[in-house]
Specification:
282 residues; four-stranded mixed sheet
Length: 282
C-alpha cells in the first residue's frame, strides 16, 4: 500500500510539473507552424509573373505540371536554364497545394521574398530619376486582386512608387503578383509603420498630398504637376479619417448612376491616367 501511495504522489507531482507554463509554452512553440502568409510569400505563379520574377533574379526553383507542353513551357525551360533555376516536374495536385488552388497555369516558381524599400530609400532613388515623382499611398487596402490591378496600371502610367502600411493591409503575396502580371517587379513598394508620419516626411520633401473622397474637387480640375502623392482608401471604409487632415486637397470622381462608389482599383486607375494625361498632353 505504501508503494502504491508513493507511486500516486510521483504521478501527481509529474502532472503538476507538466502543467507549468514553461512546459506548455515550449510544447506550443515546438508544434507551431509557419503562418500561411510566410509560406505563400515565397511563391510566384502564372506565366507572366514567373517570367518577370526569373528575369529579375528572384527564381529559386521552377515547378512545372508534369503533363505540360507547348511553346510557353519550352520558353520557360530555356529562361530557367539561362538564369540557373532548376526545373522540377510535379503533379497538378502539388501546384494546387503550393498556390492554395490559385490559377497557376501549371507554373509555380519558388522565389526569394519580395524586398520592400524604406520610405527614405524610395524618395532618394526616385528623386535621382525625376524632380516630379508620383507616388500612390494605399490606405489599408485588403483585396490582393485590387492591389495587383493597381500595380499593373501603375506600371502602365509611370507611377514612381507605392507606399503601403505594414499592418492591417495586404502586402506582396503570390495572388498580388499574379494579378499584376509581373508589374510588381518594376514598381518599387515601400512598407511603412505609420502612414501619417510618412505623409509628413513627403511634405518635407515638397510633395503635394491628395486624397479621395465623395466630397472634393472634380478630379478633372486636378493640377497634377510637381511632386505629388495620391491616397487611395480602403475598399469598404474609404480613406481613414486620420489622413483627411493631412491632405492638401480632396478629389472626387463624379458619378451619375445609382452606386455610391467605385471599386478601389478602378478609381485608382482613373486617377493614375489623369496624372498621365496631365503630364503627357497630346
Amino acid at each position: 500500500m505504501k508503494k502504491m501511495r508513493n507511486d500516486k504522489k510521483r504521478a501527481f507531482k509529474d502532472s503538476k510539473q507538466k502543467r507549468k507554463p514553461g512546459f506548455k509554452k515550449e510544447a506550443v512553440k515546438k508544434d507551431r507552424k509557419p503562418t500561411e502568409e510566410a509560406v505563400e510569400d515565397n511563391f510566384v505563379f502564372g506565366n507572366h509573373a514567373t517570367i518577370e520574377a526569373i528575369q529579375q533574379g528572384r527564381g529559386n526553383k521552377l515547378f512545372l505540371q508534369e503533363d505540360s507542353k507547348g511553346e510557353k513551357v519550352e520558353q520557360l525551360k530555356i529562361l530557367a536554364k539561362e538564369h540557373a533555376v532548376p526545373v522540377k516536374w510535379v503533379p497538378k495536385q502539388k501546384l494546387d497545394t503550393l498556390t492554395d488552388h490559385g490559377v497557376h497555369q501549371g507554373i509555380v516558381l519558388a522565389s526569394t521574398a519580395y524586398e520592400y524599400l524604406t520610405l527614405d530609400d524610395l524618395i532618394t532613388k526616385t528623386k535621382e530619376k525625376t524632380e516630379t515623382p508620383f507616388f500612390l499611398i494605399l490606405d489599408s487596402l485588403e483585396d490582393p486582386h485590387n492591389f495587383g490591378s493597381i500595380l499593373r496600371t501603375a506600371d502602365a502610367t509611370g507611377v514612381d512608387g507605392i507606399i503601403i502600411p505594414k499592418h492591417r493591409a495586404v502586402g506582396i503575396t503570390p495572388v498580388v503578383t499574379k494579378a499584376s502580371t509581373g508589374a510588381v517587379e518594376y514598381i518599387p513598394v515601400a512598407r511603412v509603420t505609420n502612414l501619417a508620419q510618412s505623409i509628413a516626411t513627403l511634405k518635407e520633401h515638397d510633395f503635394w498630398i491628395f486624397g479621395t473622397d465623395m466630397k472634393g474637387t472634380d478630379y478633372r480640375q486636378w493640377n497634377t504637376q510637381g511632386a505629388i502623392a495620391l491616397i487611395i482608401g480602403n475598399e469598404g471604409r474609404g480613406m481613414s479619417q486620420g489622413l483627411h487632415k493631412e491632405v492638401d486637397e480632396l478629389l472626387t470622381i463624379p458619378m451619375t448612376g445609382h452606386v455610391q462608389s467605385l471599386n478601389a482599383g478602378v478609381a485608382a486607375g482613373l486617377l493614375m491616367y489623369e496624372v498621365y494625361r496631365g503630364r503627357n498632353p497630346l
